[in-house]
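Structure request: Small ribosomal subunit protein bS6, candidate division WS6 bacterium 36_33.
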Amino acid sequence: MADKKLKNYEMMVALKPLLPDDLRKELHKEFVDMVQDDGGEVLDVDVWGKRYLAYKINGHNEGYYIIYNFKVSPSKIAEIKRQMQLKQEILRFMVVEIEDVDKIGTGIKKKELEI
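Returned structure:
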C-alpha cells in the first residue's frame, strides 16, 4: 500500500433494479474484498433497496440503492472507481470523502442486509 494513512469514504451505488439476489451478493462481496485487499475496512452498509430515480438512466426508472461507508488508502480510490465503472450492473455510483466520522450514516431506517 503506497499511502499508509486510511481515510473515510462514503459510496452510493445504484444497481439495476431487477438484478437477482445472488448477483447483488456477488457484487457486494467483490467490493468488500477490493476494500479489504489493501488493509481497508468496510465500516457500514446501508441498504435502501429499490427506489425511483429522479430521471431515467439507461432506460431504468428505478435503482437498487446501497450506501457503503469504508476506510481505505486514498491511493486505492482510483482503482475502486475504475472497477465500478466496468460493472454493467451499476447504473450510477459516487464516492465522497467523509471528514467527520461521527456523521456517518443516513438516518434512514436500515433494512437487514439482504446481500
